[in-house]
Write a structure and sequence with these properties.
The protein is of the alpha+beta class. Among the domains are: 89 residues, ApbE-like superfamily (T-fold, Orthogonal Bundle), CATH 1.10.3980; 121 residues, T-fold. The chain is built from 8 helices and 17 strands. α1 packs antiparallel against α6 and α6 crosses α7. The radius of gyration is 20 Å and the shape is globular. The two termini are 25 Å apart.
Amino acid sequence: MIEIHGRTMGTTYMVKAVKTTDSKAATTDERSKQIKAEIENLLKIVNRQMSTWLKDSEISRFNRYGETQWFEVSSDTVRVIAEALRVSEISDGAFDITVGPLINLWGFGPAKQEKQIPAEAQLKELMAKIGFRKLSVRQLPPAVKKEEPGIYCDLSAIAKGFAVDKVAEYLDARGFLNYLVEIGGEVRARGFNHNKQIWRIGIETPDSKSRSLQKIVLLKNVSMATSGDYHNYFEKDGTRYSHTIDPTTGRPITHKLASVSVIHESCMTADAMATAIDVLGPVKGYELALQENLAIFMIVREKEGFVEKMTPRFKKILRR
């Protein structure tokens, strides 16, 4: 089995691919180096398209664009923004890529500022500048447009999933029938591992003090993305503030949903839906999952500890 590790998008990535008969590379080491170089180049391209941490990326240049005319971008960026807008629509705005200024204001974005509770006036001012319906996309030629010059997009809640899909597409094109791709906890599995077993993926218990597993899921030819509030947060005066911002209030989420994992054919979609459900919480988020016939697994904080909640479609996957 070829195993590749590295860093991308501010996190780590890992690829495991079961060897195929291919004469293009004489040894596993040579082939691993070639595949790693090609995958890392692919990930660099995604970063140059969608990272708000890079000043010259497509999305950063669009964010600085002070006009309301069409702004040309790559077809991949249009693909991601179009899916983001679709998820925004079905979640009634719980997922919103224009929420970036609020993420920055609370200190969770690329702007190097202290995590803090912003003033009401600041919140009110920025809330007037967000809204996914102020964005439009065009397929040919690929471009994106904002209705107001101040609109700012943050693709961090969907771009990692898209990158997983891109690496999977690359492995498919190279003839790999069995592989696992993981970027920052978002995964896609195809076929079987080198022991001819279905890939086993752990869902972490949402406890920042330990790294135990809450559940192990068998994944085959699907993706899984997880969203939670247990790694990136700050506390002030005894109150916990999550990095997940509710676009409808401009504030961090306050409900009891600690973690949600979404299984879908597309990792990009799973990534976005996990964030949408995380924002909506254990009741409205579960209703959305049922509406969209999604396989989801929730971990909810209750007085007695963590409580599990899952949709019927997820239960079927557990019974494999």
